[in-house]
Amino acid sequence: MQQVPAGLQSAIQTLLRERQIFGLAVCGFDLKGVRFAGGFGYADLDRGERVTEDTIFRVGSISKLLTTAFVLKLAD
Known about the structure:
Elements: H1 6-19, E1 23-30, E2 33-44, E3 49-50, H2 61-75
Antiparallel strand pairs: 1-2, 2-3
């Protein structure tokens, strides 16, 4: 698996700063599988815990729609 492309890394760093987002993880994939993944920012600011591609996030309201779509696709 490759690192997140440099241009995308830069855009994510800008997004984190401008939108005051504490942390996020990204993944790029195609029909052949995961092509890149990475974490940015902090999973827990108080503990100084950084986000990695292995960080587990809670499924929020927007994530439910995506999760449902992926599960249905897998079931198909």
